Structure formats: C-alpha cells, structure tokens
Backbone:
C-alpha cells in the first residue's frame, strides 16, 4: 500500500482523471486530464485491476469497490479497514469541499457517515491530500 501511495505521489508531481469502462471488452478510457499524461504501466495495471474487481456493495446509486481510480484531476484510493470504509484523494491541486463531496458520493456507499480528521495543531497538513473515514454505527 505504501508503495502504491509513493507511485501516486510521484506521478502527480510528474504531471500525470476518471476512468470508465466501455461495454464491449472492458477497456480503460482515461478522462481528458489524464489522457494527456503518461502514466506508468504499474499505475495503469492497478487501476484496471480495481475497475474489474467485484463490487463490495451495490445499491440504487451504483456499485462500490476498493482500489485505485482516476477522477477529474485526482487519484482516488478506496479501502476497507476493519470493516470501515476510507478514501484518500490525491491531487496536484488544492482540494476543495465541492470536490470532496463529489468524490464521496461517487466512490463511497450511501447510508454511511464519513469524517475528515484534522491532525493536532503543529502537524503539517498537505492541501493536496484529503482522507475521509467512515464513522461506525450507521
């Protein structure tokens, strides 16, 4: 996991958006932002594996799976840790609340509550990385 995060950060700094699949053979189609950038074979393989993975939850709003995805200008990493969902949003641009909201509702199941946790005062926060954690109980 740490190796993938390092790859994501390197590719963002190198100037590396939403990946969709076509209905015929499942072939990745890179969003316009990412189509202009050269992504490593390792990154493309990880994204393709995520897209082809089985959904963990399906509801009226869509299917939700873990893995690495491209959305707009960001790399999205979705995980389930100890039964709770979390998502990391990596971008070379500062990440605003409207974008966080779009990512949350696209990649995380409905009916769950998520929180953005701020570190203690004095800790350095990266404006290009946001992590949301599921609050247990819903």
Residues:
């Amino acid at each position: 996991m740490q190796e993938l995060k390092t790859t994501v950060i390197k590719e963002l700094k190198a100037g590396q958006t939403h990946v969709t699949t076509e209905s015929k053979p499942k072939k990745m189609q890179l969003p316009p932002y990412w189509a202009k950038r050269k992504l490593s074979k390792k990154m493309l393989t990880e994204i393709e594996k995520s897209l082809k993975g089985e959904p963990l939850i399906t509801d009226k709003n869509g299917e939700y799976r873990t893995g690495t995805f491209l959305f707009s200008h960001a790399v999205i990493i979705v995980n389930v840790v100890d039964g709770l969902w979390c998502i990391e949003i990596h971008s070379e641009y500062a990440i605003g609340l409207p974008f966080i909201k779009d990512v949350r509702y696209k990649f995380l199941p409905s009916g769950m509550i998520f929180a953005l946790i701020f570190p203690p005062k004095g800790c350095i926060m990266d404006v290009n990385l946001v992590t949301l954690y599921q609050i247990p109980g819903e």
The CA atoms of residues 94 and 127 lie 5 Å apart. Confidence is low (pLDDT under 50) at residues 15-25. Strands lie at 20-21, 28-29, 57-59, 62-64, 67-71, 74-81, 84-91, 113-116, 129-135. The longest strand covers residues 74-81.
